[in-house]
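Sharing a chain and its predicted structure for anyone who wants a worked example. Both blocks are below, sequence first, tokens second.
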Amino acid sequence: MMKHLTAAALAACLLSLAPAASAAVPAPPPHATAEAAPTFAKADRHTAQEIRAFLRWFYDGTGPSPYQREHWTSDYLKAKQAETPDHDVILCAQNEPVAIEVGPVTVAQSAGFGWATVTTSWAGGARQTLTAYVALDSDPIELHDVVCG
């Protein structure tokens, strides 16, 4: 009889916690869920192919979602953005481009970073480039820094 009471009490306790736990975690936007993020086997360092796949997913043609910005950028980049709230440091702009292309990735093992030139296209035909950096040992993979120009 004691086994049944213990199991029943445990089940009731777990069931009572489930709604609270699910209510505490907001749902991500449909196009930027954890399931949509690229997944890679855990390795010591990310490869150029993994970094390019990540950057293409992250920039997603017109720029990252707020969910992507929150979950796949470094604390360093978040602090950099906080210092310049009127300028989007991830896009090097103040508004949204009409298209984004990610170029080939260069990896410098000794520096611990991989980077790619990202080209943004704007209404009216203007184009701009930026350099996006990923730390080779980031876990999970994330955008570490962006240099405009």
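Comments welcome. The chain has four helices and four strands.
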